[in-house]
Amino acid sequence: MTTTHPSPGSGGTGPGPGGPAVDVRGLRKSYGAKRAVDGIDLRVERGEIFAVLGPNGAGKTTTVEILEGFRHRDAGEVRVLGEDPQTAGRAWRSRLGVVLQDSRDQAELTVAELVRHFATFYPRPRDPDEVIDAVGLREKARTRTRQLSGGQRRRLDVALGIVGRPELLFLDEPTTGFDPQARRSFWALVRSLREDGTTILLTTHYLDEAAHLADRAAVVRAGRVVALDAPDRLGGPAARRPVVRWLDGGVRRSERTDSPTALVASLAARLAGPDGEVPGLEVARPTLEDVYLELIGEPAAGAGPAPAAPTRPAPTDARTPDGPRAVVPEEARP
Amino acid sequence: MTAAPTVRAPRAAALPGTGRLGVERTRAELRAFFRERDAVIFIFTYPLIMLAIFATVFDGQDQGTGDYSVPFAQYFLPGMIATGVMLTSFQSLAISIAVERDDGSLKRLRATPLPAAAYFYGKVGLVLATSVVQTALLLALAAVVYDVPMPWDMPDAAGRLATFAWVFVLGCAAGAVCGVAFSSLPRSGRSATAVITPVVLVLQFISGVFFAFFALPTWMQTVASVFPLKWMAQGMRSVFLPEQAAALEPSGSWQHGATAAVLVAWLVVGLVVGARTFRWRRRDDG
After folding, report:
1. B174 has pLDDT over 80
2. What angle do CA A76, A82, A88 make, to 5 degrees?
């Protein structure tokens, strides 16, 4: 619905570098009577960071675990790096990186031991020490996993996910439980991976995460994609129509309009006091959160957009390689 | 290890071989195992303590009939060796795999190109290494403290060691595959110990480990004959007891053929059930 498939006949093989990293059409999966995924279409292009946004239980993890080959679908077409995850083998797995939702395993080995061990599984692994540096765990390299903090643990998960030099990295709710500082540096790490040419599919229920990282985001609700666009364009122009609020004889009024300037001008002509001001005037643009809440059907959405929403930095502007440095520079994919 | 950074290596770079990965897994398994101090101590010292307690309490009470008997420690050692093998193979794998399934280790490995076979080779390596250490400790304790004669000092040393080798290897193998199969039974990692320990304990009591097998009621002997521990213990007795002690067995002989048959049968059953029931994810995980 929201994606376009220019050549419907090509959906067979062809993992060539030109094809999309992920191509999903009509995906369905039920658990008993519950339709966890109810007809999802997605297309993730090579080299992009794609976010799947949605509340808990919307079907994000089910979808991603089908793409990772953990679950079997009931219906639909799925191609991940050109192959069907249900039948793909080791060679396909060696091109993927998977960071699962929660992890408390492998407690007795140290960070360095684990990263080195996992590197042996892959045909062309990254240098384990460089990976440990890249995720900022150099000081913890000789620490046993069970002694790591939550944020460090998550960084180790990412290290294990990228040590095989994946073309496509899945991050399932990677920053849940992070403090703001840890989240910022984690974002920088994810962006540096993309600069190395890694395609990233990220699920999250944090809007700011999608806004900061994603080139495009799909909002999933009750197993369906309800919007798909760049985070700052989600929901289309109508969802971002500004709201003008003012006081008319002490009564609060508001109006959504595409021409706020004209409205303000007419209000000024009609209601301005001796000082030339319209009482209680404010013009607000719905925040991403307002748009998102409206998309997932939360009634709070239209009620009160935050005043004077600051325009968020477009995600494409936020790719400065601050924070951890790039792992191993590679030529960017076309 | 890494290719030159700016040049993209051909996609066809070969996947690492399963054998090499099996060695890597064995190394990781052993490293993790020996770091878990409590488990190491429990698994290794339990048979040692049991041997020490029983051999001390029943010191001087020879096991046998009026016609023939052997010193208690000598009769008891083979059963403890069999028990030790069951602990390091069956119990250790059943619990550790249940825990690894529960905590997500298995799922994480499943997301990598690691072949399933290499994971199991790692478990086999762990079982073999820990079983060898376990048995060596038991032999050392029995020989040094309780003066139990070792098979290499007894008549037909070569035959005894050969018997020891095949009973040990078959016992480890059957125990390991049954442990893999059994690991799917506990619903969570936390319940694994509670589910598996009673099975192990009951088998020990009815299989002639804590009590002389010939002294058990016939029906108990019959029940025990279905399970591998009784046969492992009997096979080990044929290694550590004098030839005349075969007369103490209910059948009057060591029954090597039956021992091999039962152990192989459990090996096959464990393989089939294990292969059919093995899961990489928790039951509640879709």
Report:
1. yes
2. 80
